[in-house]
Write a structure and sequence with these properties.
Layout: E1 15-17, H1 22-30, E2 36-37, H2 54-77, E3 83-93, E4 96-98, H3 104-114, E5 118-133, E6 136-152, H4 157-165, E7 186-190, H5 193-197, H6 201-212, H7 231-249, E8 259-262, E9 271-275, E10 281-285, H8 289-293, H9 297-317, H10 320-323, H11 332-339, H12 343-355, E11 359-362, E12 365-368, H13 370-375, H14 385-399, H15 402-408, H16 413-417, H17 424-429, H18 433-456, E13 465-469, H19 475-483, E14 488-493, H20 495-498, E15 514-518, E16 531-535, H21 543-556, E17 562-567, E18 569-570, H22 577-589, E19 595-596, H23 597-606, E20 609-615, E21 622-628
Parallel strand pairs: 1-2, 1-3, 6-8, 13-14, 13-16, 14-15, 16-17, 18-19
Antiparallel strand pairs: 3-4, 3-5, 5-6, 6-7, 9-10, 11-12, 17-21, 20-21
The structure holds S-adenosylmethionine.
Domain O-methyltransferase dimerisation: 301-378
InterPro entries: COMT-like (IPR016461), COMT_C (IPR001077), COMT_dimerisation (IPR012967), ITPase-like_fam (IPR029001), Maf-like (IPR003697), SAM-dependent_MTases_sf (IPR029063), WH-like_DNA-bd_sf (IPR036388), WH_DNA-bd_sf (IPR036390)
GO molecular function: nucleoside triphosphate diphosphatase activity; O-methyltransferase activity; protein dimerization activity
Length: 629
């Protein structure tokens, strides 16, 4: 019997379940769905700490499982299936995500955490519609999640071990199976029982209805209200959000060259948009009135964004993550003592950082998440601490004057720091040793993260000598000489910078192919090279300065010489959110601006460069390579 008529819609399609779970297979077969089972080979190794909420982790894992199968089948069969379904179930308790236990002791640890408490079971589900152009896989990704609350009884140690010895916990998220013996551990369930078993069938069927039977446009009635916005107002808002989010999403660089898009076709009825950690919109559809009156989550995230940024900035500035480095667990009072702050204030900061998934909180105290350990501890290899301090101490004060910047169309250094800035570097960043080192640290930390992408976006092996103009601490040069064994790099920067680069050089790496030369690229001679590099330099300056600099470089180049520009490139559809925000950043603090690929192409061609190629690396810098003709 087919309970959900929409399942019939899938009869003529080749449907694949990307899961080996017999429970999921049983649930879907009993609903009348005909499908093949192709277990995904995607390793469930996503960094949990990088997801702001647990269900995003489950949805992302489900998506990756489904996409892996879609890709593999497309390669193997020279055509993809029509639909791939991926799912991932997790259990969360006390801010921790529990998956399948690795052994009996792990099962015991999990079950003890759940004992006597309410926990959440989330299943992230992804429905991937596949098609192919040539052999190129094209996919539309629809994601949702379901949450069910489960309360465990107070269980004795004996009973826990008896259950563990039954062998049942081992292949189940959270270490129990509610549909069998594990059902005896459960006092009550709030929500979809099948979701706890492993697949939210009810929500899945609703989702299919929304996908395959969208309500006709004229089914929407517009009701006028005096003070309370009508339901339709929210719908329209969501539609707009969906449009922009969908655009953003299509910029996300995922597996190989596949173009992924997300979002729903036509009208989907009631929508609630969630952003996943890769900037993808997640459309959670539900028909209940409650969801319609909720504030749109995308807007709530934007509203709170500045609070989250500042909480992270302050915790970095107070060196909270440094204090908790390694496996340290500290109570709020101990942290407060170390950072010379109030206990109540510290506790609130720590709790907020826990909510932001930068810290973990257990009975032993607070500790760093993997994300904080890797990027927020000030001396970790890929620390963003330097960049965050620049954002806190320099960018934040400028951004408080954004309104004036927009009205006046000029930078706001005079308002934020009490002085007019003619030369951004001499007058602003380098006016004291403290600000100079802070800026250099910022550039160093962000370049550490992006240098590899930039250095490998193009094959640069034909060049023998490169000159990185405004190359700062030489971070890109260090990666370039690793990638290209025949390349020598000159890092050219202002004397203020070159005098202070020694503290930024790696230990144990042979840097003899890097030379540091000080000078002013507007006034002094520039070293000769067959590849010139400008990373985050052009965006700092007004057009006349850029023309002067590019003319100078062009005059030095011989035919075949290269110019590599590394900047955030603006796209014409506002997809690249970081680049567009960086464009505001340039408004508040410089006379420069970010540019589109078209603008860069025109600029470079005006100066005698041809064969302009652009790679959007998907990280914080895009790369443009061109050749002097
Ligand atoms: N290229 C580095 C990166 O991407 O991380 C640093 C970029 S930073 C925004 C600009 C760099 O240009 C700074 O290191 C600065 O000192 C350097 N710079 C600014 N004006 C300069 C000038 N007139 N001559 C040489 N270098 C200059």
């Amino acid at each position: 019997m087919v309970l959900c008529p929409v399942i019939r819609k899938l009869v003529s399609k080749r449907v694949v379940l990307a899961s080996a779970s017999p429970r999921r297979q049983e649930i879907l077969s009993s609903a009348g769905l005909r499908f093949e089972v192709v277990p995904s080979r995607f390793k469930e190794t996503l960094d949990k700490a990088s997801f702001s909420v647990p269900y995003e982790y489950a949805m992302e894992t489900a998506k990756q499982k489904a996409l892996e199968v879609a890709n593999r089948m497309n390669v193997k069969d020279f055509r993809p299936p029509d639909v791939v379904i991926g799912a991932d179930t997790i259990v969360t308790v006390d801010g921790l995500i529990l998956e399948k236990p690795t052994d009996k002791q792990d099962a015991y640890n999990m079950l003890s955490r759940l004992n006597g408490k309410v926990h959440s079971v989330f299943t992230g589900v992804t429905i991937v519609h596949c098609s192919s152009k040539g052999n190129q896989l094209e996919t539309e990704v629809f994601k949702f999640y379901e949450e069910t609350k489960v309360k465990f009884s107070d269980l004795s140690e004996e009973l826990l071990w008896e259950y563990i010895h039954s062998g049942e916990p081992m292949d189940k998220a959270g270490g129990y199976g509610i549909q069998a013996l594990g059902g005896m551990l459960v006092e009550y369930v709030h929500g979809d029982f099948l979701n706890v078993v492993g697949f939210p069938l009810n929500h899945f069927c609703k989702k299919l209805v929304e996908l395959y039977y969208p309500p006709p446009k004229d089914a929407i009635h517009h009701v006028k209200h005096d003070s309370i916005p009508s339901v339709e107002t929210f719908e329209v808002l969501s539609d707009e959000e969906l449009g922009s989010s969908t655009q953003r999403n299509s910029n996300v660089k995922l597996q190989g060259d596949n173009a992924f898009s997300s979002g729903a076709p036509g009208s989907l009825g009631k929508k609630e948009i969630h952003q996943d950690t890769m900037g993808e919109p997640v459309v959670k559809c539900s028909g209940d009135m409650e969801s319609l009156t909720k504030f749109p989550s995308t807007l709530v995230e934007l509203l709170d964004g500045f609070k989250a940024s500042k909480a992270m900035f302050v915790a970095c500035k107070l060196k909270v993550f440094d204090l908790l480095k390694g496996k340290a667990h500290l109570k709020a009072k101990d942290v407060a003592d170390h950072i010379s702050a109030s206990v109540c204030g510290t506790e609130r900061l720590l709790d907020s950082c826990t909510a932001l998934q930068l810290l973990k909180k257990t009975n032993q105290g607070y500790s760093n998440t993997g994300l904080a350990e890797k990027y927020l501890v000030s001396d970790s290899e890929y620390s963003l601490h330097g960049y965050i301090m620049h954002a806190n101490d320099h960018v934040w004060p400028l951004f408080t004057h954004l309104e004036s910047a927009v009205k006046e169309g000029t930078n706001q250094n005079h308002r934020a720091f009490g002085k007019n800035v003619q030369d951004l570097f001499q007058d602003s960043y380098y006016h004291s040793m403290e600000t100079k080192l802070r800026f250099m640290n910022a550039m160093h930390s962000i370049m550490k993260l992006t240098a590899r992408d930039v250095a490998t976006a193009f094959d640069l092996s034909r060049f023998r000598s490169a000159c990185d103009l405004g190359g700062c601490t030489g971070t890109l040069a260090q990666v370039l000489i690793q990638e290209y064994p025949n390349l020598k790099v000159t890092v050219f920067d202002l004397p203020d910078v070159i005098e202070n680069v020694s503290g930024f050089q790696p230990t144990g790496q042979d840097t003899s192919r890097i030379t540091f030369t000080s000078g002013d690229f507007f006034k002094d001679n520039i070293p000769e090279a067959d590849l010139y590099i400008l990373s985050r330099v052009l965006h700092d300056w007004p057009d006349d300065k850029i023309d002067a600099l590019l003319s100078k470089i062009s005059d030095l180049c011989t035919p075949g010489s290269g110019l590599l520009l590394n900047e955030m490139v603006l796209d014409d559809k506002n997809r690249n959110r970081s680049a567009w925000l960086q464009s505001l950043n340039m408004l508040v603090q410089t006379e420069g601006k970010e540019r589109s690929s078209y603008e860069y192409r025109c600029l470079l061609e005006q100066h005698g460069f041809r064969n302009v190629k652009i790679v959007q690396t998907g990280s914080l810098l895009d790369t443009i390579l061109c050749t002097k003709c």
